[in-house]
Amino acid sequence: MALKFCAHCATELVWQIESGRERPVCPQCGFVVYRNPAPVGLIVATQDDKVLLVHRVNPPLGGYWAPPTGYIEMDESIEEGTARETKEETGLDVAVDKLLGLYSRANVGVMIAAFAGRIIGGAIAFDKKEVDAVQFFARDELPRQSAPTTGKLIDLWFYELVQEIFSALRAHGERVLKFSSGE
User: Fold this and answer.
1) Cis peptide before 59 (omega within 30 of 0)
2) Nearest partner of 57 among 27, 89, 33, judged by Cα
């Protein structure tokens, strides 16, 4: 949703060229609205050679299986936020071991840092407002899911990212998840 009024002085924003792009700017105080993607952490966490997945309730990809994923807060590193979100969604504690990739696409509003990790404690427990199931899957049992036919651009993009991760795990599981900590 585009801001209509200045967050600093409540003056109506106007569109003008700022730093080489058209952006909302406050004509009163000069505040510039920069539309930056929100950081999101995703973890491909394993235990006993099985991958942890959650069955999502909310968008993006409500009704789909995916690795634990969530928004990072200002007072935490992306690794800390990824571990916190995993604990919130699953009840499990994870070690965030290796960055698998950084993923972005224009106009979806998020940037996803995907990590490999492992379960180090906790017990499965989840809030049904966010996920309605938590389960471990062997590489050859990863769910095959149809592409979403409704929703927003972020739903399709997130689906494609999850499918890319699942495909890599099916084909190269051990190498995809090889930890960088010397294991």
Assistant:
1) no
2) 89
| 89 is an active site residue | no
Residues of the chain by 3-state class (helix, strand, coil), percent to 5: 20, 35, 40
Please name the fold of domain 1-35: Ubiquitin Ligase Nedd4; Chain: W; (2.20.70)
Domain boundaries, the chain: 1-35, 38-176
pTM score:
0.87
Encode pLDDT of 8-56 as tens digits. Answer: 999 999 999 999 999 999 999 999 999 899 999 999 999 999 999 999 9
The arrangement of secondary structure in 38-176, i.e. its CATH architecture, is Alpha-Beta Complex (3.90)
**List 76, 80, 88, 130, catalytic entry:** 130
The 3-state DSSP class for residue 158 equals helix
Quickly list H helices, 24-181: 78-90, 153-176
